[in-house]
Amino acid sequence: MIESPLLLQELLRKTAGGDAAAFALLYKHTASKLFGVAIRIAGRGEIAEDALQECFVAVWQRAGDYDPMRGAAMSWLIAILRNCTIDRLRRQRTRPEGHAAPEDALSRLAAPDSADQGAELRALRACLDELEESPRRAVLLAYLYGLTREELAAHLAVPVGTVKSWIRRSLDRLRRCLDS
Amino acid sequence: MNYDSPELREQLAAEYVLGTMPVLVRRRFERLLATDPGLRQVVEGWTARLGPIDRTAVAQEPPARVWRAVERRLALTPALAAARPGWFGSLTFWRGAALAATALAAVAILYVAVRVPPAPTSVVAILSDDQGNPGWIALGARGDGIAVAPIGKIAVDAAHAFELWAIAEGPPRPLGLLASEPGHQLMVQASLVPPDGVLAVSVEPAGGSPTGLPTGPVRYKGNILPREP
Fold first, then answer.
1. Segments making up each domain of chain B, as ranges
2. For residues A87 and B84, which has the higher predicted lDDT (pLDDT)?
3. H-assigned helices in chain B
4. pLDDT, average across residues B87-97
């Protein structure tokens, strides 16, 4: 389903007014994209399913909070979905074994001929490229796959303290780069 | 901690969006967010900065049980079926019904096993443009008629008209000119709408195609859905 920003915005507005049909249509238009994001973060289907369910329950209850002036409807939905997914993930004791090869998505993000050549993504990629390799990987692994500081430390074979300072400095540099 | 420091606020917001905050810190941060609109803006800034990464995720169809669970938890089904008597010809009804029916049909298309709540009408087809935006809906009315109505606002200039076609085997068959004003609908005999076929809307000269076959571009189309028993 192709997402049309204005359609989603309108559906959210109606959802806020208690229109269940608009809400169902909103689900139809966005669920597969959101599920894809959740699967990537959670690494396995059941957590992603729970997160998607939580996400839409929250959307029904909070649709009135959405303000079109402050960003696209899809971004708002993804932000809720991400929070639901991370909360679910953190409640789970065990991590899926060897969640999908991180390198795949990293390289897709890095590939110059990536299918999505949106200006924002290009700018972000350029700024990510300015970071050193390991800190960049730490940031991307956290965002893409929901890794905790401890998991990052294990994955990258460095102390947790190092991960913390990498992330802190990388995010600061990213902000300066993107806002400039 | 001094939450007034702009630097700290940026830092916390960034780690919140990145997802690397320990759970308890995360909870505490969310409590702060609830009462601090300024901090929410800082978070939104980070959502916008990192958000483009999510575009690289591959869309994947979730199982039908997810939507069913959402519906159950929010007790939505009665709302979807709550069409009132006197609905026929009511503008609000048609808008609502179109949307409701679209939603129901969507669920039916995506999830074959879903139980469709009772509704006064059944969806025959949703006609969408090539961007996937629904433009017209065909609803099985009582008796053997099918009503085709616009969803939202659809405009065509005075020199042209929208014409509806049924396509199955053989050449497209003209079903009539559509009224694009909301609240109007074209009634078609159900027997003219072939199961397993396609309904399409083309742009024709005012008065309809002079040849009996589509002459202009097809603007909307949709598969005819299996009829309910």
1. 6-56, 64-223
2. A87
3. 6-18, 23-35, 37-50, 64-74, 77-81, 91-110
4. 46
Give the CATH class of A102-179: mainly alpha
Question: Largest alpha-carbon pair distance within chain A?
Answer: 51
Domain limits of chain A? 5-91, 102-179
Interface mutation target, options B20, B33, B109, chain A, most CBs of A under 10 Å? B20
- Residue listed under structure tokens 């409590």: B31
> Which residue on chain A is closest to B46 by alpha carbon?
A175
Rounded distance, CA A178 to CA B203, Å?
Answer: 46
Residues A44-55: tens digit of each pLDDT: 889 999 999 999
Q: What is the pLDDT of residues B44-61, one digit of tens each?
A: 999 999 998 898 888 999
Q: What percent of chain A has pLDDT over 70?
A: 84
Name the CATH topology of A5-91.
Answer: Rna Polymerase Sigma Factor; Chain: A (1.10.1740)
Mean pLDDT of chain B: 77
Q: For chain A, say whether B24 makes contact (Cβ under 8 Å).
A: no
**What pTM did the predictor assign?**
0.61
Inter-chain touch A171–B60, beta carbons under 8 Å: no
Residue A9: is its pLDDT beyond 50?
yes
Q: Is the ipTM of this complex over 0.95?
A: no
What are the CA-CA distances from residue A27 to residues A2, A23, B16, B113 (Å)? 12, 6, 26, 17
- B128 has a pLDDT exceeding 90: no
Helix residue ranges, H only, chain A:
5-16, 20-42, 45-62, 73-91, 102-110, 119-129, 133-145, 149-156, 160-179
Per CATH, A5-91 and A102-179 having the same topology is answered: no
b/e map of A121-144 (b: 16 or more CB within 10 Å)? beebbebbeebeebbbbbbbbbbb
In order of A30, B65, B141, B224, the CA distances from A3 in angstroms are 7, 22, 30, 23
